[in-house]
Specification:
The structure holds 3 protein chains of 3 kinds.
Chain A: H1 2-32, H2 38-56, H3 61-89, H4 94-116, E1 121-122, E2 131-134, E3 137-140, H5 141-163, H6 165-175, H7 177-182, H8 187-213, E4 215-216, H9 220-235, H10 242-260, H11 266-280
Antiparallel strand pairs in A: 1-4, 2-3
Helix pairs in contact in A: 1-5, 1-6, 1-8, 1-9, 1-10, 2-3, 2-4, 2-8, 2-9, 3-4, 3-8, 5-6, 5-8, 6-8, 9-10, 9-11, 10-11
Chain B: E1 4-13, E2 16-26, E3 31-35, H1 42-49, E4 57-62, E5 65-66, H2 75-78, E6 80-82, H3 95-102, H4 111-116, H5 119-138, H6 154-166, E7 172-176, H7 184-196, E8 203-207, H8 211-217, E9 220-225, E10 228-233, H9 235-240, H10 242-249, H11 254-259
Parallel strand pairs in B: 3-8, 3-9, 6-7, 7-8
Antiparallel strand pairs in B: 1-2, 1-4, 4-5, 9-10
Chain C: H1 2-25, H2 29-54, H3 62-80, H4 84-106, H5 111-131, H6 133-136, E1 149-150, E2 153-154, H7 158-180, H8 183-193, H9 195-200, H10 205-231, H11 241-254, H12 259-275, H13 283-296, H14 306-321
Antiparallel strand pairs in C: 1-2
Classes of the chains: A mainly alpha, B alpha/beta, C mainly alpha.
């Protein structure tokens, strides 16, 4: 029983990182109907930038954290500006954007691969392995920090998307891009901000994920790609917060699978869930049914 | 017996009744039109007739057989083809290829014939090309045969879409706003073109906004509003129907409809 | 008319003769090795082009079918010692059947969903190859795969194998060429252009997609068999996701939907990294930039990416020179 609770906590921690990453997928899909393959690589970029700031440049951790979020957001927005926007402007077919994001993802991953090498590196940590006893079992400080900051970020994001002008513009774009444009909203700007925010959240997820594993390497982005996308689809793609529910479910299933079935299979669970969701309820748990337009 | 008998068909989307208890008929050799304001449910009727939506209730008899709720690809073989309100051509393919796709259900050779490039395949392809070119000559588009259709002017594309729907020789042709986006001259050409179709063995069901076109060429007209049939009759009757005038331009707007 | 027919046939015959000349003239084993790989990769690129380029269903799991074919062929050969021709057919059938099983559900999806699904499928196959140790020997891979024996001759030398690989490639290319020039190929293009319109024209869209997917998978399976009996050793590391990306890069570079382009791109992307060994580290980086650049380039649409556009133009000119006009019922 005690181990089950421990697994549950691990699952929730893992799920939190998926949830934060899933928001970026969902936002971009909601507005552009594009599966942004670069997004999982952005997770890796965020994690690595933090490592570079802290370990190589010796910048204090809180400052590094802020730098990383801004820098990763900027990478995301820049990616949008350089590759997605020109394609949108020229009204290129959907596959062009899709392949473009696949290309960008390969480029980013290999830039880091060439700069940082392929070996796994030890990740900076807050509060070395300290654990606190809560209700009779042990949780590490990192785990608490991850869960608490996820909750805070999600609250902030919910406020942003529902109460601020930009947030409303984003929701409007997700409903109908053309109509929003006609209302005088600069869709280009909204899309840029969407990429910025999605990437910044992915950066936080990357930092937290690597902190809990205590390691980082270039392939972590590719590794979580299917899982976070599965989280997004499970929750309902296009529903901004749907990915949170999906992320937690996928995180928990993954940890339980690893614990009770075998760690070889942990990476397959997300894929199997994804397939099941797509065939049983493609709109996801929280999504609405879409009517095919003829 | 009528070629097409639609009886009491309804379709709603999440509580919103797009079409409710709609009934109408098309006789062989007729040009029948469905008119109505935007959002009246006309295109939904077409989508029900071609299997893109499933009917909640009611029946659709075509040539004596029930055809509601079949997969969309089965309608061509039964002799029912359509065009779309917003052009749905195959933009990167040539004009000839577009027409050949329209004819594909009539080109009969198997996959193995294709792989081995048999005599049967070559002859069937040859015939298909001749038939496609014949249709293109008919509408004076044979000069465009090799052009990719995305490079063609809008009016020509509209015409091509009709040709693509005609080439398989359907009994009933569903035209969804064929005159939308055409200039008056092109519309006149289209009108005389459509008028000649019954003589060639096609029956026509038409959705259209252009009143003068509808009034000039239709044998019979059904009027829809809010998913319901509000009037029917020959053009002269419909034109004078007060309910129709009200649906179109509110009360007191008689002159617009009457004048076409 | 007769002369025209002869003229029409002469170019491909010359080309094929020249290709068969390679294994007889080239004695350098290293170059023959590259030749064999060009054949294998051309099969992969052309088959992926059928489903992704012609039919528009972008798949990133093609390496999985390549792997399934390689393992199926190797296992059949090791355990039953049957003739290689049977092994190739077994490989194609194994990959094709799995292609149908995956294709039926997966091809209900489109765009990015399908891509993720195929990525996941590729990963699943890799993990199965890695973990089903009793069958695949896991990470140790399969060794001692028998060499092919054809007409009593054991295919040993590089030039012999090149002849075999070239023959299989030409056979598959011919099949693809014939499919593309039939109503079935035209229907696939129509599905790519507009699924709803295609459906209205009487095309059973889902069935056509699944069949195309299965054909592509079967061809990749045959390529896998070609690899297995050439390398004589296979392991799961060959059939990874990155390799699927390589194949997709070839298709995109050559022009999606343009078959000769795929062959040229497969050749370029095999020969260039081999000649510029120092660039190996940057290989994936270059592929990434290639994908972005090609999509951002001028006037991208189906069949018009870089090589495709350029190639299709020259192709058209050659046809014109030979007095063949499209639409006169002779194409």
């Amino acid at each position: 029983m005690e181990s089950f609770l421990a697994y549950t906590i691990n699952g929730l921690v893992l799920g939190s990182t998926y949830a934060l990453t899933a928001i970026g997928y969902s936002m971009v899909y909601g507005i552009l109907e594009l599966v942004n393959f670069t997004h999982s690589t952005i997770y890796m970029v965020g994690a690595y930038l933090f490592y570079i700031f802290v370990t190589l440049l010796h910048i204090p951790m809180p400052l590094s954290f802020i730098f990383t979020i801004l820098a990763t957001g900027a990478v995301g927005a820049l990616n949008e500006r350089l590759t997605i926007r020109p394609l949108r402007a020229k009204n290129r077919p959907k596959f062009a954007m899709l392949i473009c994001t696949i290309g960008t993802s390969i480029v980013l991953q290999n830039v880091f691969f060439l700069l940082m090498g392929s070996e796994t590196k030890q990740y900076p940590a807050i509060a070395e392995n300290q654990s606190i006893a809560v209700l009779g079992f042990h949780v590490t400080v990192v785990q608490i920090v991850i869960v608490v900051s996820t909750v805070l970020l999600l609250a902030a994001f919910t406020f942003f998307i529902n109460r601020t002008k930009l947030g409303m513009a984003m929701r409007a774009c997700a409903q109908d891009t053309e109509a929003t444009e006609l209302m005088g909203v600069s869709v280009d700007q909204v899309v840029s901000m969407t990429f910025f925010i999605g990437s910044a959240l992915a950066a936080v997820a990357g930092i937290m994920g690597c902190m809990s594993y205590r390691s980082v390497d270039c392939s972590i982005g590719a590794a979580i790609g299917t899982k976070t996308f599965a989280s997004t689809v499970l929750g309902g793609i296009g529903v901004f917060l749907g990915g949170v529910l999906g992320g937690l479910i996928i995180g928990l299933t993954e940890v339980y699978t690893a614990a009770y079935i075998g760690s070889n299979y942990r990476n397959i669970t997300a894929f199997i869930i994804l397939i099941l969701v797509l065939f049983l309820k493609p709109s996801g748990l929280l999504g609405k049914k879409v009517i095919k337009k003829v | 017996m009528s070629l097409l008998t639609v009886s009491d068909v309804s379709k709603s989307f999440g509580g919103l009744a797009a079409v409710s208890h709609m009934s109408f008929e098309v006789e062989t050799g007729q040009i029948v039109s469905i008119i109505g304001p935007n959002g009246a449910g006309k295109t939904t009727v077409f989508n029900l007739l071609t299997g893109f939506y499933t009917c909640d209730e009611g029946s659709i008899l075509f040539d004596g057989e029930e055809i509601s709720n079949l997969p969309p690809y089965t309608y061509v073989e039964r002799g029912l083809t359509r065009t779309f309100q917003n052009l749905k051509l195959f933009p990167a393919m040539t004009v000839l290829e577009n027409v050949l796709i329209g004819y594909q259900s009539c080109i009969s050779y198997g996959r193995l014939d294709a792989v081995f490039h048999t005599r049967k395949k070559r002859q069937a392809e040859q015939k298909a090309r001749e038939r496609a070119m014949e249709i293109l000559r008919d509408i004076e588009m044979d000069g465009y045969a090799k052009d990719r259709c995305m490079n063609l002017p809008y009016g020509v594309q509209k015409q091509l879409e009709i040709a693509r729907a005609m080439v398989s020789g359907p009994k009933l042709l569903l035209l969804d706003e064929p005159a939308a986006g055409l200039n008056p001259q092109e519309t006149d050409q289209l009108a005389s073109f459509i008028q000649r179709l019954p003589g060639k063995g096609y029956s026509i069901l038409l959705i259209e906004h252009d009143m003068s076109l509808v009034m000039n060429i239709s044998d019979y007209i059904y009027v829809m509003d809010y998913g319901k049939k509000i009037a029917q009759g020959i053009p002269g009757e419909v034109q004078k129907n007060p309910q129709v005038i009200e649906a179109y331009i509110g009360k007191g707007g008689k002159s617009y409809v009457a004048g076409g | 008319m007769k002369i025209q027919k002869v003229k029409k046939g002469i170019l491909p015959v010359l080309l094929i003769a020249a290709l068969y000349g390679i294994p007889f003239c080239v004695k350098n084993q290293y170059m023959l090795r590259i030749g064999v790989y060009v054949c294998i990769y051309s099969i992969l690129a052309c088959s992926l082009n059928l489903i992704s380029g012609v039919c528009g269903q972008v798949s990133m799991g093609h390496a999985a079918f390549y792997g399934i074919g390689a393992y199926a062929s190797a296992l059949v050969a090791i355990h039953f010692g049957i003739n290689w021709v049977v092994c190739v057919i077994a490989a194609a059938i194994a990959a094709g059947v799995i292609g149908v099983l995956i294709g039926i559900p997966a091809l209900k999806l489109s765009g990015g969903y399908l891509v993720i699904c195929t990525v996941g499928f590729g990963e699943l196959v890799r993990l199965i190859l890695l973990n089903w140790v009793s069958l695949t020997r896991g990470p140790m891979g399969l060794v001692n795969i028998p060499r092919p024996v054809l007409f009593g001759v054991t295919i040993k030398s590089g030039s012999q194998y090149m002849v075999v690989a070239l023959t299989l490639f030409l056979l598959i290319y011919l099949i693809l060429h014939n499919i593309l020039n039939s109503k079935y190929g035209r229907n696939l293009k129509a599905i790519r252009e507009d699924e709803i319109a295609a459906e209205t024209m009487g095309i059973h869209v889902h069935r056509e997609k699944v069949i195309a997917f299965a054909i592509a998978a079967a061809m990749a399976g045959a390529a896998g068999s070609l690899l297995a009996h050439y390398m004589l050793f296979i392991s799961p590391t060959i059939f990874v996701g990155d390799f699927s990306t390589n194949i997709l890069s070839m298709v995109v570079l050559g022009g999606m939907g343009f078959m000769p382009g795929s062959v040229i791109a497969a050749t370029l992307l095999t020969v260039i990294p081999e000649t510029l060994r120092g660039l190996d580290k940057y290989r994936m980086l270059i592929y990434g930039f290639l994908l972005i650049g090609l999509m951002l380039g001028k006037n991208v649409s189906w069949e018009t990416t870089a090589l495709g556009r350029w190639g299709a133009g020259i192709w058209g000119k050659i046809r014109q020179r030979r007095g063949l006009k499209e639409g006169d019922g002779k194409v």
